[in-house]
Amino acid sequence: WGTNSFNGKPVAIAGASIGAIGTAAAQQHLRAVLGHLNAPTLGQPEVFLQYRADSWDSEGALINEQTTAMLQGFLAAVVTHVDRYATVAA
Questions:
Q1: Are the C-beta atoms of residues 44 and 72 closer than 8 Å to each other?
Q2: What is the DSSP annotation of 44-55?
Q3: Residue range 33-49: average pLDDT?
Q4: Of 4, 12, 79, 82, which one's alpha carbon is 20 to 30 angstroms from that of 45?
């Protein structure tokens, strides 16, 4: 008790669900857990995707360009968030 693998490590949350708000409820709970574990959590942007079979082409790539752009922005924010907490090994 008192130590955990997430302590001080930056994290980001993204999710998808078949319903309109399923991932939002799960992410809210996960944020509370990660806060208790002292894991710096990316606040914005948030990713709440509704999974739909027609969102993907036959190769598994997203069809919707706005969703693709949003995810690219999210990943760029994740990199910035992680860089804030990066340490250089001596």
A1: no
A2: SS-EEEEP-GGG
A3: 93
A4: 4
